[in-house]
Amino acid sequence: MKLRVWEAVTFGLTGTNAQTVDPRSDVYSLGATLYYLLTGRTPYEGSPPVVMAMHLQAPLPNPQEADPALDYDICDLVQRMMAKDPADRYQTMEEVEK
After folding, report:
1. What are the backbone dihedrals phi and psi of residue 68, each rounded to the nearest 5 degrees, phi first?
2. What is the pTM of this model?
């Protein structure tokens, strides 16, 4: 069952299927980790199916809503890393670094 859940998440995050996971999936994952590190909470809450659906479809809450003191640029970085459409994300980790 875990494989099927991962395939569903991967489909949404890459826009295709589990066989086409690419570096943009890692960019998304790091963005989600940074979101948590900056705000102290995950971007979405609920049961696993609800959270999965939100990762696939719901707008990303602005990290500044959780912590208004966060710098605009770091929030913009996280939001771009977690863009729903992989084409809208940084394409590689090297792009994130710049």
Report:
1. -60, -15
2. 0.78
Contact 16, 67 (CB under 8 A): no
Whole-angstrom distance, CA of residue 51 vs CA of residue 45: 6
pLDDT digits (tens, 9 = 90+) for 75-98: 999 999 999 999 999 999 899 888
63 contacts 38 by C-beta, under 8 angstroms: yes
- pLDDT value at residue 15: 52
Residues 6+ apart with CB under 8 A from 81: 27, 28, 30, 31, 34, 89, 90, 96
Using alpha carbons, list the distances in angstroms from residue 43 to 4, 26, 28, 97, 98.
Answer: 22, 17, 12, 22, 24
CA 47, CA 54: separation in Å to the nearest integer? 11
Q: CA 29 → CA 21, 68, 89, distances in Å?
A: 12, 23, 11
